Amino acid sequence: MILKVVISVVCAVSVLTVGILIGHFGIDKGSSAPSWVNDVAKDVDEALIEKFLSEVDNMQIQENLRELTKVPHMATTPGDEQTVKLMLERWRDPETGLDDAWREEYMVYLSFPDTKNPNKVTVVSPSDTVIYTAREKEKPYTADQDDPEVVQPYAAYSPPGNPKGKLVYANQGKPSDYQELNKTVDLRGTIAITRYGGAGRAAKAINAAPYGVIGVLVYTDPLDINDGLMSDINETYPHSWYLPPSGVERGGFSTHYGDLRTPYLAAKGNHTDFADITGIPPIPIQPIGFEDAYVLICELGGEAAPADWQGAFNCSYNIGGPGFKQTSAFNSSDVKLETFNHGELKNSSNVMGVIRGSVEPDRYVIYGNHRDSWVHGAIDPSSGTSVMLELTRVLGKMVKQGKWRPRRSIIFGSWGAEEFGLIGSAEYTEQYFTKLSERTVAYINVDIAVFANATLRASGMPSVQNVIFKAAKQVNAAGMESTSVYDNWIKYSNWTSPEHGLIPKMGHLTGAGSDYAAFVHYLGITAMDISYTYDRSKTNARIYPAYHTAYDTFDYASKYIDPGFFSHQAVARTAGNVLIRLADSLVLPLNCSDYAELLEMYLSRAVDLYQTDLCLISEPLKSAVASFRSAASHLDQMILSSDLAKETPMKVRRINDQLMLLDRAFLDPLAFPDKYAFSAGMSTFPGLADAFAKAESSGQSSDWDKVHYHLSVLSQNIAGAANTLCPLFSELKKYN
Amino acid sequence: MILKVVISVVCAVSVLTVGILIGHFGIDKGSSAPSWVNDVAKDVDEALIEKFLSEVDNMQIQENLRELTKVPHMATTPGDEQTVKLMLERWRDPETGLDDAWREEYMVYLSFPDTKNPNKVTVVSPSDTVIYTAREKEKPYTADQDDPEVVQPYAAYSPPGNPKGKLVYANQGKPSDYQELNKTVDLRGTIAITRYGGAGRAAKAINAAPYGVIGVLVYTDPLDINDGLMSDINETYPHSWYLPPSGVERGGFSTHYGDLRTPYLAAKGNHTDFADITGIPPIPIQPIGFEDAYVLICELGGEAAPADWQGAFNCSYNIGGPGFKQTSAFNSSDVKLETFNHGELKNSSNVMGVIRGSVEPDRYVIYGNHRDSWVHGAIDPSSGTSVMLELTRVLGKMVKQGKWRPRRSIIFGSWGAEEFGLIGSAEYTEQYFTKLSERTVAYINVDIAVFANATLRASGMPSVQNVIFKAAKQVNAAGMESTSVYDNWIKYSNWTSPEHGLIPKMGHLTGAGSDYAAFVHYLGITAMDISYTYDRSKTNARIYPAYHTAYDTFDYASKYIDPGFFSHQAVARTAGNVLIRLADSLVLPLNCSDYAELLEMYLSRAVDLYQTDLCLISEPLKSAVASFRSAASHLDQMILSSDLAKETPMKVRRINDQLMLLDRAFLDPLAFPDKYAFSAGMSTFPGLADAFAKAESSGQSSDWDKVHYHLSVLSQNIAGAANTLCPLFSELKKYN
Questions:
Q1: Which of A75, B283, B384, B427 has its CA 20 to 30 Å from the CA of residue A270?
Q2: How does it sit in the membrane (chains A, B) (predicted)?
Q3: Which of A182, A155, A132, A196 is nearest to A335 (CA)?
Q4: In the 3-class helix/strand/coil scheme, how is A303-352 assigned residue by residue?
Q5: How far is residue B49's CA from residue B584's CA, in Å, rounded to a whole number?
Q6: By C-alpha distance, which of B535, B391, B385, B508 is closest to B449?
Q7: Beta carbons within 8 Å of B508's beta carbon, 6+ residues apart
């Protein structure tokens, strides 16, 4: 009986168990979660980041660079087309490529010298005899530097012409330099020699023309680039990273960016020459090496130039009689400048690649760099392109193997014709303006990946500081095993933040130094620029010395910039880590409280500077900054205190949209109609600063009105940004 | 034994069943759906719409109107403040109010006459004796028309002044009218009398000044407003809806909209007078009744004006000698215009109300109307405000009772100071520019709800046609039991669409006639304007005759515009239906294929008009329109073919974002920098049409270049819009 009972109980329990099992697993509960419920809640995978970091290979980067720098690849030349094909081939590779890759073409206005009629700089006697000729090409030290495709040094967008006149030395060609010079020298009909730095390239000619100067020379002084060194016998390349005497910096000589014929419109070939081109040199300008500049400057007559105009030459820099000193062999001679540059419409390509997002394909993280160089461009831009190709190889492989698909879409851009004025990236933003503005989470720019191999350098909107720090803490510094990029960085550059204490110092993207410009100033997209850079205790070079010269080759990069390619690797790891976090994080890793901190610092600086004058720093500005801080804290608090993975994805999206669109609120195209695509109203309060400076110097009440106007613009922008951080209106409303 | 087996089996089955039940219901599967899964998939509830329609009450609307029109409520007067308080009280009602309501204040620049020194129009003899004085106030027929708060008829923003000169008749004051007049009359030092219509109010004075005209009068000709009728003994109000002889249309006389001192900036009191005010009359201008205009015009000398300048007076409209005819008692007399208007900074309020969205609180449907009138404003704007209050009562009640909460947030705006130039709505869009631009699904404007009681009239972007039609089919036409608003509408106004066949004709929001302007032209938000309007077979009145006069009262509205308030009810039901659909639909009821149809029509019209001249209609424009069509079809197809309620909410949000942001893509503030806040690039291709007209008339190649430029702008805008309809780039890319 007991047995029977036991058997019955056992049976019953078994049957019950079977029933429970059937009930639990066998019957669809109807309300069970759809498959996408887990997908939408997924966050960044730290293990995947570790895997990514371990796979980034310095030797692959080195081989990428070797491949990219085989021939000169100036924009739209056959060498450029070769790199287009290389990018497409890599990004379409079935094992390591992206989901998709294609080219986007634009018909853009470029400027070239005449290969049959090289530009010339000569000294000619009063009887028109040539008594000195500046070097037309740089002296080759290796076979590649002697490639016939090495373009003659020239100033792109300089007009053709053959001005001849007495030489003067105009320092850096700033407005104040010509103003100073004009006090003692009649500049009409002169040729001015200037050194790089202090003013934009085109500005050196634009600033000169109103004084009657008819031609401009520009060179790089050894003081500014070579820490004073000059000799290629033992001091400069090929013995070091320093610029040889015949090295010449080429460049785009325009103050605007984007295709000059089609402002605000994509250069798609449907334009006439309607748009008047402005911002280019009105008079011929030509760059020369310091070897020739030495000969010209040291023979100049007239008074000695001011102390801060003196460079590294072992002679007095005189301002010019105008012209050469009486004791010189050049006495009474003129300098003659013959330029044969011509404009040309050329087909320039961006190469685009995409990894499609799984959950939010309509959110884009864009990573880009230009592809075109002036000559071989090993550092500028191929160091960045080598890094980008290594990133896409590692990420592409994970995608192709089915191991990873980012939450958001990633777009890679290999921009064309950057050297002529950020043209490829600007045309891209013009063509896709609305779409990019509405959907882009962030833009990461890695142009020159390695200026030097000492430390990380990062610039960007304040909201990206946090994610860059996080990534930099996870990556080993170049060539170090137990020091992170972050710990190394903080040694070279730091400051004490009221909120975070001692942290590395980030830069701002205020200018138009690389392809981030159109994203920042035209679209208002959160952006950053990442590279490795100098130990400033070791050099004062304004940039790495081979910049834009024929010496920026694989040999130079691998011997003197980053032997072993460990700095390239550190940049690839750091930027890739940031990229993955932006693409995969459930909540975008953009920090609006760091934005608030910066605004508060600007405000307090503005109060210090202007308050005493006129009680200028008005209550609306103070209250706008306070609103921003309060909205930022509120949003931060909400992110920290919620388990967003468990909440509706609409809430996550809402928060992410607020973070994504924050920088758009600072964009005010209507407030600065006179500044071409420099419409960001915030940054360092530049509108206010400019207006204040002008009002202080003029004292006119209409100028003070403009100061008030800029205060209003600023207050509205910051209050508007605070508003975008709130889900609804009621948070900021006041009852009456 | 059998029994035992049976019992055992029964027991076993029972136990199994219990097990299954426990397994199924008792154990959490872990993967069961979170509660929000159903919420995010919810679509519009048709039963709720039926309930809404049934609750909209014509008598409530009538009582709202009675309340709103008790006193004159010109912007910023005590009467206006009374309506502010009324709105706040209604929207904060615990039973029928909204979630939240508050006021937003702006310090705006208005213009008023001097109550102690009324503006005067007189005829003065050469010896300066006044021989005729125009009426200073309208003749009262009811007590409210005699209210001391009835503002004297005046032209807001007309400067003060006292010009005196010979009178001329300048028709409608268009540029061509003054040009024509100037052929035979020396206009220097004259006063021009003009009739309303043909040109904007301010334009009548702005166009006159260059010819030396020193003052302008403006009146409403009975031909244009009264179907020719003139007598208040038996023809005009109080016997009909027609304008009595002394009625005068007031108005804002400026060509821009928004606060004139603070373009692009919210008028928050932190501005100086920096901004130069443009677009207002440079010479005094004053409106008068046709009673006085009759006396002045019929005495004019000179030649008879052209046939199309003649109005309804029983005399010849002569152009003026200049001045009166020799046979007139006014012979050699001047007309003297004395205006004492002054500008004033006044605190104007918007009243804002919100119903918070449940699923997507960060998506806004905005419904608005202005609150300020010129006098009692029964029709303009209180007919619309009465409708809005009835909508918020019905919707508020459902919210307060817990029966409804919309998917998206609904914002109600009761704008201030519209009559002075759409100021409240413009300042609102300036203050919240980024936030509104990023989050607003659509703007619904119901200003004058009922011009007349014949048929619905609707204008808007092409994408809203579909939802308006859907709503109009569900609502009974005013005063009809078996005819829908839609079926009634199609009888009055229709066209044959290539895609839909015979449908009602929608208008476009191209001008700045009401508060939709800033939403459309400045923000690029999808918008519509809804009202009931005339049977055009019965009247040619350019607008309802009491417009902007002292006769626009409750008596007038309830007797002659909408007795029984059935048209108000039909508008409330139709607009409310559209509002609920926009707020609640899973997929936004915005149709991009209807946009494509309109673009194709514009294209084909442009081809007809311009093709033969210069092969102008370039391939990029054609291909942009084709891309738009293809993207629209693709998106439509995706919406139709998917069961989006079952898919990830991210996909729904993506589609909705594409639909919401479509109109933003047509906004190009940089392409038309010279047109103040009229930056929509598309619409009827206005940039192209203007440029073409100018080029054809001048024949200059620089003007033809501008035509090409506008073609490029247009092509890029349309292609950009097509792009925003695609989730990624790859859909539109071309491989090389």
A1: A75
A2: Single-pass type II membrane protein
A3: A132
A4: CECCHHHCCCCCCCCECCCCCECCCCCCCCCEEEEEECCEEEEEEEEEEE
A5: 10
A6: B385
A7: B459, B460, B683, B684
**pLDDT-derived band of residue B434, with 50, 70 and 90 as boundaries?**
confident
> Do A220 and A302 fall into the same domain?
yes
B8 domain residue, yes or no: no
List of chain A residues whose C-beta atoms are within 8 Å of the C-beta of residue B661: 434, 438
Q: Which of B433, B621, B666 to mutate to test the interface with A (most CBs of A within 10 A)?
A: B433
**Domain co-membership, B120 together with B89:** no
Considering the domain architecture, whether residues A415 and A496 belong to the same structural domain is answered as yes
Same domain, B292 and B376: no
Domain boundary pick from A281, A316, A340:
A340
A440–chain B Cβ distance below 8 A for any pair: no
CA atoms within 13 A on the CB side of B125: 6
What are B444's two structure tokens?
């619904």
**Segments forming the whole domain that contains residue A169:** 114-340
Residue A674, classified by CB atoms within 10 Å of its CB into exposed (0-12), middle (13-18) or buried (19+), is: exposed
Q: Read off the CATH number of the domain in which B597 is found.
A: 1.20.930.40
Helix spans in B209-272 (H): 222-225
Cβ contact A720–B431 (<8 Å): yes
Q: What pLDDT digit, counting tens, does each position of A536-591 carry?
A: 999 999 999 999 999 999 999 999 999 999 999 999 999 999 999 999 999 999 99
- d(Cα B411, Cα B361) in Å, to the nearest integer? 11
- CB–CB contact A720 B25 (8 Å): no
Residue B403 at interface with chain A, using a CB cutoff of 8 Å: no
CATH number of the structural domain spanning residue B222:
3.50.30.30
Tell me B171's DSSP state.
T
Q: How many CB atoms lie within 10 A of CB B581?
A: 21
Q: Is residue B31 part of a domain?
A: no
Residues 673-692 of A with CB under 8 A from B: 673
Three-state DSSP at A734 gives coil
Closest chain B residue to A710, measured at CA: B271
Distance (Å, rounded) from C-alpha A368 to C-alpha A141?
A: 32
Q: Which residue of B has its CA nearest to A267?
A: B712
The residues of A carrying an active-site annotation are: 418
Q: H helices of B242-381, where?
A: 290-298
Q: Give the residue on A whose Cα is nearest the Cα of B85.
A: A736
In this predicted structure, which of A661-675, A708-722, B332-346 has the lowest mean pLDDT? A661-675
- Helices and strands of chain A, counted as H and E runs: 22, 19
Answer whether A360 touches B (CB < 8 Å).
yes
**Read out DSSP for A423-466?**
HHHHHHHHHTHHHHHHHEEEEEE-SSSBS-SSEEEEEE-GGGHH
Q: What is the CATH number of the domain that holds A473?
A: 3.40.630.10
User: Is beta strand A334-338 parallel, antiparallel or unpaired with respect to A120-124?
Assistant: antiparallel
Among B7, B434, B438, the strongest candidate for a mutation testing the A interface, having the largest count of A CBs within 10 A, is B434
Task: Flag whether pLDDT at A155 surpasses 90.
Answer: yes
Looking at B584, B604, B623, the residue that finishes a domain is B584
- Is the pLDDT at B512 greater than 90? The verdict is no
- Report the alpha-carbon distance of residue A325 to residue A18 in Å, rounded: 109
CB contact, 8 Å: B7 with chain A? no
Least confident window among A423-437, A446-460, A658-672, B367-381: A658-672
Q: Which amino acid is at B652?
A: V
- Helical packing angle, A382-400 and A46-55, nearest 10°: 130
In a domain, A62, yes or no: yes
- Structure tokens belonging to residue A557: 């990069």
Q: What span, in angstroms and rounded, lies between the C-alpha atoms of A564 and B536?
A: 84
**Structure tokens belonging to residue B657:** 């974002």
Check if B453 contacts A (Cβ < 8 Å): no
